[in-house]
Amino acid sequence: AVLGGTGFAISIDLLEKYALGLTSLTEDLELTVKLNLAGIKIGWLHDVKVYDEKPLTFRDSWNQRLRWMRGHWSVALKYGLSLLKKTFLEGKLFMLDMFFYAISPLRILLGGLILLFLFLSHVSDVNVVSLPYPGVLPFWFWFAVSLWIWLYPFLALLQERVPIKAFPYMVYLVLWSLTWIPLVVQALLTVRVRQWSHTKHTRALSFKEVNKV
After folding, report:
1. Is the Cβ–Cβ distance between 134 and 114 less than 8 Å?
2. Cβ pair 74, 24 in contact under 8 A
3. Domain segments of the chain: what residues?
4. What is the mean pLDDT of residues 76-97?
5. Of 70, 74, 111, 192, which one's alpha carbon is 20 to 30 angstroms from that of 63?
6. What DSSP assignment string belongs to 15-58?
7. What's the burial of 55, exposed, middle or buried (CB within 10 Å: 0-12/13-18/19+)?
8. CA nearest neighbour of 134 among 109, 156, 115, 108
9. pTM of the shown model
């Protein structure tokens, strides 16, 4: 489990001991890594519901996600080696999971390269198999990975018993997901930027109103 934005609770003692010196724009992620490296377990409460207002415009969404990805790049560069040392020198495999979560922007970037390679193979004479990354594993593997990526959100909706009428809106998710690719590139190129981009909150809902949604 990881500490996520507004949806977590932490003791004052741990906050005072480990929160000092956080420099990432995603302080929750950096604090998660520091706690993991210190051997402190983070729990997950599946039945707890936390309500959080999301950005209402694409620009606000872009700025928020850009901050997240800058933070991920920063944390990965700062703590990545320490996480790998804990994994392979001390045999703590959960550190590897933390490492892969921290390098999420890199995984998105590689996914974008795969899409680019596949696109080039269809519009030109470029042979995908001869390219370094996709050619390492057979086509059926990449097809299965891609299929899982696109099916996973639908399975999540089914698990949460979301009304069927919401499913057609998943088309927008496909388009929105593609925006992550240029976004992680911008985040990498501007990883040293420490300017906080505040997400505007304009609505005030009561618990009674939220339960009607």
Report:
1. yes
2. yes
3. 1-44+55-102, 104-194
4. 92
5. 111
6. HHHHSTT--SS-HHHHHHHHHHHTT------TT-----PPPSSH
7. middle
8. 115
9. 0.78
In 3D space, the residue among 102, 72, 110, 59 whose CA is nearest the CA of residue 187 turns out to be: 72
Q: What's the rounded Cα separation, in Å, for the pair 25 and 74?
A: 8
pLDDT of residue 182: 93
What the block records as the tokens of 178 is: 């593609």
The residue written with tokens 């694409």 in the block is: 58
Calculate what percentage of the chain has a pLDDT beyond 70.
90
Which pair of structure tokens corresponds to residue 194? 């420490």
CA distance 142 to 187: 26
One-letter amino acid identity for 86?
K
Q: Which amino acid is at 94?
A: F
CB 117 within 8 A of CB 131: yes
* Angle between helix 58-90 and 104-123 (nearest 10): 110
Count of beta carbons in the 10 Å neighbourhood of residue 169: 8
Q: What is the pLDDT at residue 206?
A: 73
DSSP 134: G
The overall longest dimension of the chain from CA atoms, in Å, is 61
195/177 Cα distance (integer angstroms): 24
